[in-house]
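forwarding from the other thread:

> can someone predict this with S-adenosyl-L-homocysteine?

sure thing
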Amino acid sequence: MSELARILREIIATEGPIPLETWMSYALAHPAHGYYMTRDPLGAAGDFTTAPEISQMFGELIGLWAAQYWAAMGAPATLRLVELGPGRGVLMQDFLRAARALGGFPAALDVHFVETSPVLAEAQRARLEHEGAPVTWHHELDTVPEGPAIVIANEFFDALPVRHYVKAANGWCERLVGLDARGDFAFTRNPVPEDSLRATAPEGEILEIAAIAQKTMTALAARLARQGGAALIVDYGHAETCLGETLQAMRRHAFVDPLRDPGEADLTAHVDFAALARAARAGGAQTFGPVTQGQFLLGLGIVERAEALMRNATAKQAADIEAALVRLVSDDEEVELAAGKVRGMGGLFKVLAVAQHGLPRPAGFGEDQATP
Ligand code: SAH
């Protein structure tokens, strides 16, 4: 049994079952044994792969997007460029390379990373130390200096702990993690229902609430509303709030039991973009989208970018660029290419923009999705 499993077992044995949100917080962020604290989970050798790790085009296009929006903001002399959960720093490296060609934009950039993992912060430092843009690290958004900002978050919100409520005969009861008769971790529920939840649903139905994500978003939106700027949120998830749960655990690119081996698997939930957008508007900002990642990247000209890269590529490189393009934009679960099968992220992944009121619609968000 892992050290974290021992710690959690002891907590549950003495205090009783703990909320799923607490369980996830321990599993992901326990200072000594949490999943993100102890490893670099990304890439083929890790547990999952993300868009910036698939292709340089992702970070480059976001760099161009940000430069355009900075101009729309009136080209402030200093822009706080903030990334939440920057992983291995790949997105930012591609962003900065694309930005270097763009007039006054690179000189305005003051880069801040919000990252809790010491392992990933070190990977970020190593990757970015020669990029000519000093980076400051933070554990929370709160300590990023004031001023107009552009905030990027790719696969950050899915990593925040969620709460579950189960519909029982007496109401919606919070889902807890306890110990079963054999002493294994098992789901149970609080016998006392949560009074504020009144939706009718069949017994056994589950309601998933990303309270930490919503709180984080409201604080972020309030900052943008006060000090100017925009945020770009990219993640897998759904455009509408609905019943059901999406908790998942991933290890070595395969799904595993979320209560097995806490701290050893990536625990996530799909992002409820409707709830996140409501949280942003509650913070006083306007929202655009969500649009699918496919719509967003096609709108920013990813096909043209891929063609430009292919012009200077070997046949093997060109096939890789094509495969990356299809993976990023296709909304088909499986696409057959000469190089083999790829799985499209373009439909499951969504993009939401949050901006100070008065700023224009950002590129990639079409014409009619504004929700003021
Ligand atoms: N954006 C990167 C990495 C995604 S993985 C990419 O697309 O490749 C999630 C990232 O969020 C990791 O860097 C992880 O360490 C970080 N993270 C998770 N929970 C966090 C929290 N509560 N605060 C700050 N960073 C967090």
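DSSP finds 13 helices and 19 strands in the chain. thats all i got for now
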